[in-house]
Design goal:
Number of strands: 18
Structural class: alpha/beta
Oligomer: single chain
CATH architecture of the largest domain: 3-Layer(aba) Sandwich
CATH class of the largest domain: Alpha Beta
CATH topology of the largest domain: D-Maltodextrin-Binding Protein, domain 2
Mean pLDDT: 90
CATH superfamily of the largest domain: Periplasmic binding protein-like II
Radius of gyration: 23 Å
């Protein structure tokens, strides 16, 4: 009953916000329009108190500055103080569900924590014009990451956690196909690096071929259901592609530019951009992941995408709920996402922000943004999944399946999938 009452109050707060603030939740042009509408609402009492915000340590100072600017520019919200605390997006969910009442009012979290937050009633559903703001202003991957089912529960903050291709354009003539990249590497006596025995990278082949492997969880983090189709002809094709790659003399199992030697191409993320620039020098270039071809069929490599999201805790006070929603909208607006990129190098999810000159000039982010359209948001996975993926790929790298038939590959995938299914608790 308590959750239902809070939900009704939140809906009321949203309605109040839309009625009182004009465009406050609405057009999605900019937070400037929203806050200007709020300033005109001098007859509305939004109350007073403290709004607690959790963000990663590197973003604390930036968030303090932006949140205080929001309060200062909106007299109607001047009764609220801002308290920004350093709680990383990987820890925010665990802290919230442990004690929702003492948790942050507005907090940034990783997309794989969504299910636990929703199940625990620790994050509000985003409805009405606020939901329109999310869907109309952010890229598809981050919008999907903000959802549970068809409902939106967060404002996207970034689209910057995933993997793509760094390469030396002096060696690689065409980065669009895996076969072409490997051939160029072999010809030049250079290496192609990809950490295929890692459960984060290996799905690039399986998801690219059309396979699925995702889990549902409850608020305690228990795995309650699985959707898996690795044990399929598509899975066999993906496994063949990994076998073919690992048989190449150019293949190296790794994903860290800093640890790569004699590399001409590597699958890695934005966090290694500086190291990649140093490694490849004037040959430095970036691209989405390539296609791969098996038995005459060509597939685009997929994989996981990672996103930072901003949630709003359900509030019993409609005035505070409105201020928190407006603040979250402002902190995820195009203008603030561009400034956040400049301050702490977080890649924007906002479509307008992605077009900013400074963001466009970032080759790594541009390649990642292109790749993210072929990925799925990473959800929660049991530890066994990661260990099992490593074991399967280690066998592939060791040559166990170099001459395997389709039936033998299918048997291996059936065993793999059955073990993945065993992690589900009924």
């Amino acid at each position: 009953m308590k959750k239902k009452i809070v939900s009704v109050l939140l809906a009321g707060a949203m309605a109040l916000s839309l009625a009182a603030c004009g465009s406050a939740g609405g057009s999605g042009d900019s937070a400037g329009n929203a806050t200007a509408g709020a300033e005109d609402s001098g007859d509305v009492d939004y109350g007073s108190g403290t709004i607690k915000i959790w963000v990663a340590e590197q973003s604390v100072d930036f968030t303090k500055e932006q949140a205080q600017k929001f309060i200062d520019e909106n007299e109607a919200y001047s009764g609220y103080d801002i308290n920004v605390e350093a709680v990383g997006e990987g820890d925010a969910a665990s802290n919230m569900i442990t004690d929702v009442a003492s948790g942050a009012d507005v907090f940034v979290f990783a997309q794989d924590q969504m299910a636990r937050l929703v199940s625990a009633g620790a994050v509000s559903e985003i409805i009405g014009d606020y939901a329109d703001f999310v869907t109309e202003n952010n890229d598809e991957g981050s919008v999907e990451a903000s959802k549970m089912g068809d409902s939106i529960y967060a404002f996207p903050v970034t689209s910057d956690n995933g993997y793509f291709l760094y390469y030396d354009k002096n060696v690689i003539s065409d980065p669009s196909t895996l076969e072409g990249i490997v051939a160029d590497c072999e010809k030049a006596g250079k290496g192609f690096y990809m950490e295929v025995n890692n459960g984060w990278y290996m799905p690039a082949f399986f998801f690219g071929a059309g396979c699925t492997l995702t889990y549902d969880t409850d608020s305690d983090g228990n795995f309650t259901a699985i959707d898996a189709t690795y044990a399929s002809q598509e899975g066999v094709e993906a496994m063949k592609a990994i076998v073919n790659l690992t048989k190449s003399t150019a293949f190296y199992n790794g994903s860290s530019v800093s640890n790569a030697t004699n590399a001409a191409a590597i699958v890695d993320g934005t966090w290694d951009a500086s190291a990649a620039k140093e490694l490849f020098g004037n040959g430095y270039a970036c691209a989405k992941l390539p296609t791969f071809t098996v038995d005459g069929q060509t597939y685009q490599m997929g994989g996981f995408g990672g996103f930072k999201l901003m949630g709003v805790k359900p509030q019993s006070d409609t005035g505070k709920a409105t201020v928190c929603l407006e603040l979250a909208k402002y902190l995820t607006s195009a203008e603030v996402q561009v400034e956040r990129y400049k301050a702490v190098a977080w890649g924007p999810s906002n479509l307008e922000a992605q077009k900013d000159e400074s963001v466009q000039a970032d080759e790594a982010l541009s390649a990642l943004n292109e790749q993210l359209q072929y990925t799925i948001p990473q959800g929660q996975y049991p530890q066994g999944f990661w260990d099992l993926s490593t074991s399967l790929a280690d066998d592939i790298i060791a040559g166990t399946y170099d001459n395997a038939s389709d039936d033998q590959l299918m048997t291996a995938l059936e065993n793999y999938q059955a073990t993945c299914e065993s992690y589900v608790t009924k």
